[in-house]
């Protein structure tokens, strides 16, 4: 009776573990495998460290982002990407990736795609509001006055960064009046 009970409990334990794992789970050895890799380089700098490389599966709303290492290499873990077609994007201030490269990712192999960035002629679209504010000369107190004024007067629907909008004289004068 004891052996039968042990066998029954073991069977339930295995069945529960299989149900928890689900149909899309990967074997334990696959957790360290790489689904997509490549190098990010530019003519100006060669291998580029610290570039954000993002992969978004076609038809999905989920984006996975990794950072390049000192050799410019990026690696997306197999545990983070399902099989399918992905569009890649990069984020490196002062550099653009031509187009939006696509790559097919399959569970049974590692996809390789090297990316070449080009220096941009217009840095403005690549900067966030925080980066713009960091680039402005002045103390943190002076910058906070600028930001407070902008949050009141600049159109929130504008797609351009706050500082770019200040080049418009009517907006700039409103910002200055509200800061004084």
Task: Give the SSE layout.
Layout: H1 2-21, E1 34-42, E2 46-47, E3 52-57, E4 63-67, E5 73-77, E6 84-91, E7 95-97, E8 102-105, E9 111-112, E10 115-119, H2 129-135, H3 140-153, H4 162-165, H5 169-179
Helix pairs in contact: 3-5
Describe the protein's architecture and organization.
This protein is α+β, with helices and mostly antiparallel strands. It is built from five helices and ten strands, in the order αββββββββββαααα. Strands 1, 2, 5, 7, 9 and 10 form a six-stranded mixed beta sheet that branches. β1 and β2 form a beta hairpin. α3 packs across α5. The longest helix has 20 residues. The chain is elongated and about 75 Å long. The relative contact order is 0.13.
């Amino acid at each position: 009776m004891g052996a039968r009970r042990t066998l029954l409990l073991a069977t339930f334990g295995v069945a529960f573990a299989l149900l928890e794992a689900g149909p899309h789970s990967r074997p334990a050895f696959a957790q360290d495998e790489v689904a997509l890799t490549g190098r990010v380089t530019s003519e100006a700098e060669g291998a580029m460290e610290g570039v954000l490389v993002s992969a978004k599966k076609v038809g999905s709303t989920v984006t996975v982002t990794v950072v390049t290492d000192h050799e410019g290499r990026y690696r997306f873990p197999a545990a983070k990407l399902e099989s399918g077609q992905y569009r890649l994007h990069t984020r490196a201030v002062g550099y653009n990736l031509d187009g939006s490269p696509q790559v097919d990712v399959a569970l049974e192999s590692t996809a390789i795609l090297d990316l070449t960035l080009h220096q941009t002629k217009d840095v403005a679209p690549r900067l966030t509001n925080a980066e713009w504010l960091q680039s402005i000369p002045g103390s943190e107190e002076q910058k906070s006055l600028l930001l407070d004024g902008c949050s009141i007067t600049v159109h929130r629907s504008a797609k351009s960064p706050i500082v770019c909008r200040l080049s418009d004289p009517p907006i700039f004068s409103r910002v200055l009046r509200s800061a004084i």
